[in-house]
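User: Predict structure, ligand fe (ii) ion.
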Amino acid sequence: MLFFPELNRGKCKTYLVACEHTRKALLIDPVRENISRYLAFLAYQQLRLDGIVDTHTHADHPTASFQLRELTQARLIMHRRAPVPAVDQHVEQGDTIEVGDSALKVLYTPGHTPDSISLYAGDRVYTGDVLLIGGTGRADFAGGDAGQQYDAITQKLFALPDETLVYPAHDYRGNTHSNIGQEKKTNPRIAGRTREQYVALMASLNFPMPDKIQEVLQPNQSAIHDDKTKFPDLTELNKVRQLAAPEVHAMLGSTSPPFLLDVREPSEYRGELGHIPGSVLVPLRELAARTGELEAQRGRPIVAVCRSGVRSTTAAAMLYGLGFERVYNLKDGMIDWNDRRLPVER
Ligand SMILES: [Fe+2]
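Assistant: Predicted complex:
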């Protein structure tokens, strides 16, 4: 495996690895403003882009993945819980990502987000934003969970050999890498802390919400990058009432069942996860233009459905903003519905 120096030379880190025999390459966490640089570098190195990995759904920069995928036909690889529809290969703990004759091993390391993975190969691990150099990624929005993060770091990353090099997705102090042994010993967030102490510390940090976070996050969650779509703000998103899969299933069996609005892409509706029988498909990207079709449902409860419950929360907030009052979201989406073996059609 060929490992190249970090490509952005900024606070957001993008890495490139390649197979020296086949010249196939994999980009990790590309940022949209540097697409031309990546393509020029790949051409200069005589590499062919074979895959793109986002280690998680980013909240601080628009991803380059959707555009690079269109320009190069490289496959987009993300964890199974990634909300976005553009993913070509979903991975889980223990899977391998092949790059020509080489491979990276996937570690599922949630906590910063529910879809965070780390990639382990040779002498190094790419940790995304779960473990940073002398820090950890924040766990206070977009489905973050400090307890899960502690478990992922201490049980999966700290189980790697001490000399394993650590390459995170962000660094704010000019570092390029550290190693597992050093983080175990000196990481000021986690070294010497119990899980409870870590959770309490993370809850006490009170970081300000990044500016314009929803303007970056929702396009990265939905692959909708047009100027027409007006995404709801955080207050509107927080108003959406979340229902777990068993609650929705019980409502469907009641005398006044809800209207099920599936907002995924048609390929997902008929794809591997299937759809809930009776649900009506209106993809999120078309929702604003097609709300007229929902007028007849105004009196009924409406439950929005998607892959992981993220795009459907956006959809529910949009409908709420249009005066639909009884709007709910299927929490954790069709992934959880399938995990609980509730009925689906394909
Ligand atoms: Fe992040």
